[in-house]
């Protein structure tokens, strides 16, 4: 009995380690294939960031300057506070020590970049964002002021990649005589010359017409040459180039923006050059409303996190109803039926083991995602099923489980209560493994509430990210935890009996159908070669389990053959796929790209982000989007249908999801000329709800 106990513990630990290593290996393969398949896989190839100080120290109670220094490779750029027609400004979230208060973040004058019909306000090569800080008067010389900031900025050339990093700087606190120019003092001086002067009492006057407007600037002096005008977002002014005439006052002719003004104090930055000295100066009129310098009060930030945790819990709970989880829940149902007559302690142990498998798996995925994102890789929820290796493993696993349910062979991992001495050990092990499997097959699904929570979590520090994923797992396991607390609820299930043998065999059908579906997905991800390798592997598994009794030598040979087949699948899929989504659109759908969205910015657009391995996506497409009445309505409203296929890895689709703080599919957005930011729809749609969304968005 003792020997069997330690053997079971060893098997349980080995299985946990195997699951962790396999998912980690798959994630590593995902990152490696992104690295080799396309040069745009990591933002670190195109930009770097560093937190620097203007001086060697700062006195107590004084104002000092640190700065975020960003460098970019040739032709790549990042954006001003108003990025223009596309792009996004830098976002800074300060995590400073109590001895520091951030007073302002200053942004140098950008460069106007015109590409086709799009205007961007950007920085090339390098840019320093000076950060004005105030040292606490109570700080003592000899202490250290700790500056910390989580930064997110967009770098673009042919494509755009979000860069996300955390920077820290220890600034010594010293007496005034200890403050000397630092290593980067000259860079701060040069940047300060590019900063606009804030003019509060500017006396500007807008003269508005139907299509355009004039801005009169009375403070203009002769001998100055107008260069450019950069409007703030919310100023009501278009990003198009302004034209100037006159000298006192200077009159700028501006185009009216399609987005109405949100405040009279938001105008823009005017750039000019002195005709004699050639010196360039800039004036800032009004407050740009830089959101990244504002901090949420701790109470609101805590409330927002709690709402996201609740969303994660509800998303995990609803995940039990999603079609992708049904095959595994059928296995869990069988285990519950088998222990219906067991004592309360056994019931609790089984369900707690299942919960442990779920929670451990979600924690592992959270850590893998966090690590890959920190390394600069764009990875989303469900990335495992973009891997031919992982799909192959799942096919073999589900095939073996189906053979077990049919009765061709018996393994302890699914036996809940069949043996006297193995009951308690094998049953918990089987429930744990079922929990791991539930998370694996649930990863392609994004349930309602779940997408928002995951998108929030992936952008947060690791503790909050872990909390989000663990709460998601808690929601998935919650029905079984209820049975753990009230074991008597299991009595409502039918009594065990001979009929369960037939039920067990019937439950093999969903697993075999899942194998067929995974083979179809594998064919979309890779060439026919891996599909053939999977079928050969299934034959090897079948031959091995038919042996009576099984031989260790045969098991080693079978494992070797499967390992060789996995290597073949890896090589074949790596050489046959480019890492991009399918460019072939079906029916009225156009293949997604950012360029296409820019071309359609003046039209009504419905964007459908989907994948062949996402069953929820397929259900929505079959029952809603393909309905003739829906198609007629979309044509009537002149809606262009755009589909992004995330079956294979696509940096462009991952960036689009990241823009809306989403990490998985399905994901749906409606765009219109009056709503260029888009309206996000729920993950699960019905025909009636979709019609309501279309009617309200496109009246």
Which regions are unreliable across 5 or more consecutive residues at pLDDT < 50?
A: 1-41, 291-299, 412-426, 576-585
Overall spatial form? elongated
Computed CA radius of gyration, to the nearest angstrom: 30 Å
- Strand residue percentage: 15-25%
Strand order of the largest sheet: 19-21-20-22-23
Helical content band: 40-55%
Main sheet: strands, sense, barrel: 5 strands, mixed
How does the helix and strand content classify structurally?
alpha+beta
Q: Work out the number of β strands.
A: 23
The first-to-last residue Cα distance is 73 Å
Notable traits:
single chain, 699 residues, alpha+beta, five-stranded mixed β-sheet, four-stranded antiparallel β-sheet, 18 helices, 23% strand, elongated, disordered N terminus
Summarize this entry quickly.
With about 700 residues, the chain is an alpha+beta fold. Helix content is about 45%, strand content about 25%.
Note down, in words, how this protein is organized.
It contains 18 helices and 23 strands. A hairpin with a 2-residue loop joins β22 and β23. The chain is elongated and about 100 Å long. With 699 residues, the chain is an alpha+beta fold. α5 packs antiparallel against α9, α11 packs antiparallel against α12 (528-546) and α12 packs antiparallel against α13 (552-576). The strands form 6 sheets. Strands 19-21-20-22-23 form a 5-stranded mixed beta sheet. The chain has a 4-stranded antiparallel beta sheet with strand order 1-2-8-5, with helices on one face. Strands 11-18-17-14 form a 4-stranded mixed beta sheet, with no helix packed on it.
């Amino acid at each position: 009995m003792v020997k069997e106990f330690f053997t079971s513990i060893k098997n349980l630990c080995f299985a946990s380690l195997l699951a962790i290593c396999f998912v980690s290996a798959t994630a590593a393969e995902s990152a490696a294939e992104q690295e080799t398949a396309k040069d745009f896989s990591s933002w670190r190839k195109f930009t770097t960031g560093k937190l620097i100080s203007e001086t060697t120290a700062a006195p107590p109670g004084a104002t000092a300057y640190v700065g975020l220094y960003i460098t970019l490779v040739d032709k790549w750029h990042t954006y001003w506070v108003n990025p223009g027609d596309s792009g996004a400004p830098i976002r800074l979230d300060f995590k400073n020590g109590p001895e520091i208060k951030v007073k302002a973040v200053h942004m140098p004058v950008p460069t106007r970049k015109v590409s086709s019909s799009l205007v961007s306000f950007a920085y090339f090569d390098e840019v320093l964002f000076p950060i004005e800080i105030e040292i606490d008067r109570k700080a003592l010389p000899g202490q250290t002021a700790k500056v910390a900031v989580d930064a997110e900025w967009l770098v673009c050339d042919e494509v755009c990649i979000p860069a996300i990093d955390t920077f820290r700087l220890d600034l010594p606190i010293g007496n005034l005589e200890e403050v000397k120019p630092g290593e980067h003092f000259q860079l701060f001086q040069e940047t300060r010359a590019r900063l606009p002067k804030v003019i509060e009492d500017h006396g500007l006057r807008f003269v508005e017409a139907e299509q355009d407007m004039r801005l009169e600037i009375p403070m203009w002096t002769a001998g100055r040459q107008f260069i450019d005008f950069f409007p703030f977002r919310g100023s009501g002014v278009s990003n198009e180039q302004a034209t100037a005439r006159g000298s006192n006052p200077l009159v700028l002719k501006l185009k009216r923006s399609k987005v109405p003004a949100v405040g009279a104090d938001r105008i823009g930055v005017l750039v000019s050059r002195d005709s004699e000295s050639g010196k360039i100066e800039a004036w800032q009129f009004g407050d740009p409303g830089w959101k990244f310098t504002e901090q949420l009060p701790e109470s609101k930030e805590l409330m927002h996190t709690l709402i996201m945790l609740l969303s994660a819990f509800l998303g995990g709970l609803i995940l039990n109803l999603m079609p992708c989880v049904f095959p595994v829940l059928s296995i869990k149902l069988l285990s519950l039926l088998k222990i219906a007559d067991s004592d309360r302690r056994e019931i609790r142990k089984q369900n707690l083991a299942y919960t442990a498998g779920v929670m451990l798996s979600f924690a592992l995925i959270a850590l893998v995602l966090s690590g890959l994102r920190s390394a600069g890789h764009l990875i989303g929820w469900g990335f495992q099923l973009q891997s031919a290796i992982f799909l192959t493993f799942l096919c073999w696993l589900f095939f073996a489980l189906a053979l077990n349910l049919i009765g061709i062979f018996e393994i302890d991992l699914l036996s809940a209560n069949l043996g006297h001495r193995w009951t308690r050990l094998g049953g918990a092990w089987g429930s744990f493994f079922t929990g791991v499997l539930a998370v694996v097959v649930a990863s392609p699904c994004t349930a309602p509430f779940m997408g928002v929570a995951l998108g929030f979590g992936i952008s947060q520090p690791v503790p909050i990210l872990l909390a989000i994923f663990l709460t998601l797992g808690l929601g998935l396991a919650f029905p079984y935890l209820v049975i753990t607390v009230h074991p008597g609820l299991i009595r409502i299930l039918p009594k065990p009996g001979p009929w369960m043998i037939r039920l067990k065999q019937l439950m093999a059908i969903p697993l075999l159908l899942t194998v067929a579906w995974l083979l179809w997905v594998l064919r979309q991800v890779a060439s026919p070669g891996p599909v053939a390798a999977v079928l050969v592997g299934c034959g090897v598994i079948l031959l091995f389990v038919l042996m009576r009794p099984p031989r260790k030598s045969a098991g080693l040979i079978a494992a070797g053959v499967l390992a060789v087949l996995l290597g073949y699948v890896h090589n074949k899929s790596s050489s046959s796929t480019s890492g991009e989504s399918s460019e072939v659109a079906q029916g009225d759908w156009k293949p997604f790209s950012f360029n296409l969205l820019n071309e359609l910015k003046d039209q009504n657009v419905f964007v459908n982000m989907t994948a062949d391995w996402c069953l929820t996506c397929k259900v929505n497409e079959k029952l809603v989007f393909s309905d003739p009445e829906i198609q007629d309505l979309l044509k009537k409203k002149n809606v262009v249908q755009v589909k992004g296929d995330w079956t294979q890895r696509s940096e462009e689709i991952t960036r689009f999801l990241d823009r809306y703080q989403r990490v998985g599919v399905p994901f749906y957005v409606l765009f219109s000329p009056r709503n260029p930011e888009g309206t996000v729809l729920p993950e699960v749609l019905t025909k009636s709800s979709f019609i309501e969304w279309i009617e309200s968005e496109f009246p």
